Amino acid sequence: MTDERLARAALTATAEPGDALLNRVIDRLGPVGAVEAIRTGDIPGDLLSERVVRRVEHWRIRSAAADPGRDLEICERLGGRLLCPGDPEWPTTLDDLGGERPYALWLRGPGDLRNTCLRSVAMVGSRAASSYGLRLAAGFAADLAERGWTVVSGGALGIDAAAHRGALAADGPTIAVLANGVDVPYPASNDGLFAEIARRTLLVSESPPGVEPHRLRFLVRNRVIAALCRGTVVVEAEARSGALSTAAWTRRLGRVLMAVPGPVDSRTSVGCHKLLRDDPSATLVTRSEEIIEAVGRIGDDLAPVPSGPVLPRDRLEPTARAVLEALPARGAAGPAQIAVKAGVDLATVNGKLGLLAAGGFVERCSGGWRLTKSAKQPK
Amino acid sequence: MTDERLARAALTATAEPGDALLNRVIDRLGPVGAVEAIRTGDIPGDLLSERVVRRVEHWRIRSAAADPGRDLEICERLGGRLLCPGDPEWPTTLDDLGGERPYALWLRGPGDLRNTCLRSVAMVGSRAASSYGLRLAAGFAADLAERGWTVVSGGALGIDAAAHRGALAADGPTIAVLANGVDVPYPASNDGLFAEIARRTLLVSESPPGVEPHRLRFLVRNRVIAALCRGTVVVEAEARSGALSTAAWTRRLGRVLMAVPGPVDSRTSVGCHKLLRDDPSATLVTRSEEIIEAVGRIGDDLAPVPSGPVLPRDRLEPTARAVLEALPARGAAGPAQIAVKAGVDLATVNGKLGLLAAGGFVERCSGGWRLTKSAKQPK
């Protein structure tokens, strides 16, 4: 465990997620320096203002109480890990959040966050959903999963849970981004669902293990859901629904915003209709094919379509190319084998493999990494 | 009855509605000349082509069989009349149809077509509507009627009938534009509805009395519905519904196109969702307030809002102003009284009253014509 990793773990326990001031401090001093500055109160003067003094004092108190080593230990015991910016598995789509990006993410489960989110759709909506909305969410999620799309949601009651369950029913990957620690089963009735997601894919949180949900954190969490995916489908939403905050983030991040219509006299479709009326960028969707068509359209901007790499092999930089060429033509190889064959160190191999996966050249498999079908074809 | 009127009556019996070739012949020769040219086969050579010879021969046969005098008599006996382009009551919005404008319209009922359509909304949809659609159509129509809007539809089963009935229930004006003669009760089960509309407002047709409905005429008729109104609401429509042809005309004519969403698994909402997905100009509406907001927005382009005349009195041309000033400050006057007081002939008075009504200065009432509320206020 590097100091930097430990520092980032500490920072997730220090400030509320996505604090732009803390991200500025990290940008300036690095994570280790940021932790130190908070501890000593030595925040760079030009970043401080009267307005934020209280917040920084609050950080100091929380930082003193934080025990990042123990948090990391707990998470590891749960089969989890801390994912930091710069890690090969870090989804670069999160960088679109700018000053509000996460300091780090706590993960629980066997999935690779970056790869799993390359082709992902957020599906969100009311907690107090109607049977109509629940049926659609489960059906859309199952269809998306069957076609190789990851369904991302917030693990809440109602539409969120129906979407996760639909994806699981189709044996597909689904990710729950929680507003509490990955070991806190909230809501309690989704306990079994969380266990299943942690067993199959990933639970994700910006907060360390043990952190309880908080009303404000739900809204802040929504930006991560929007940023991870190519687009967001609002299945059902009341006039004032948290799902509309995910929609707003989706719009702000330039992702595809979709909403499902419903009966005009249904309370839980009012928010969807409002979105479709007020936001010219919002697309009305009624079938999973329409969802896939909408997110597929901008595919090349965010991630390659699975049919072939966007970047030709010969435009890869030398190290990435060496790693790619170290992969066997058939079958798979582990990172250590690849490192030896490519003549680079293991950390570099891991980094390049992540980039090559994002480029559609390689994919994870049980034996390690292998060439994608399209990467095998000469270009 | 002038020759010109008789000729137009004959033309409605001669060709299918909205024939651009016939409209060109009328433009060139006038209605009387057009009838004569059809009878003698003497169509101007530059308008004729091999492609249309058959059609013109068909006109000749139908023209020979037509009895416009008798048609006019039958219509009059039913409390009806023939409305011709140039009449004060002729809605100039129909001119937007260009080459496909009606040759004349057969009306049945006491309403003034032009005035009644100044603030009108077309409400159309599936014959095989769901209870959801029927309930909404009736509710929207009643709301619109209560707020002084005329509901125009096609008199068909399903959404059309529900819209007419909703307007009637709110004691509001409603107009049925039929694809058959105004004396032909089609569909038969709407017999009572047609009688009530004829008693209260207007039945409208491009075809003379006695003409039976024909599949093609339904689609051609839809352009009149679209042209008469400021906007069209598609309440429910299957994937291939006649209502979508009204929607296409609405779009082509630059009117406001609206569609009501519904459950995505409802067969009769598929067409509405398709419109909302495919046509960026289509507005999703869920409440009557949203319909009024949408058509009200472009109000000034098509017709004045009822709160006050758009044109100040002193910008009226002298004859119109004389007619306006001949109206009593309180109560009403008949055209003959007004003619005497203004010192102009009856035909001129009728013409100017139509224009003044379109300008929001005067309105029809049981005693003839009266000043509108806003016209009474000094400007």
TrEMBL record, chains A, B:
<dbReference type="InterPro" id="IPR057666">
    <property type="entry name" value="DrpA_SLOG"/>
</dbReference>
<dbReference type="GO" id="GO:0009294">
    <property type="term" value="P:DNA-mediated transformation"/>
</dbReference>
<comment type="similarity">
    <text>Belongs to the DprA/Smf family.</text>
</comment>
<dbReference type="InterPro" id="IPR003488">
    <property type="entry name" value="DprA"/>
</dbReference>
<feature type="domain" description="Smf/DprA SLOG">
    <location>
        <begin position="82"/>
        <end position="295"/>
    </location>
</feature>
<dbReference type="Pfam" id="PF02481">
    <property type="entry name" value="DNA_processg_A"/>
</dbReference>
<protein>
    <submittedName>
        <fullName>DNA processing protein DprA</fullName>
    </submittedName>
</protein>
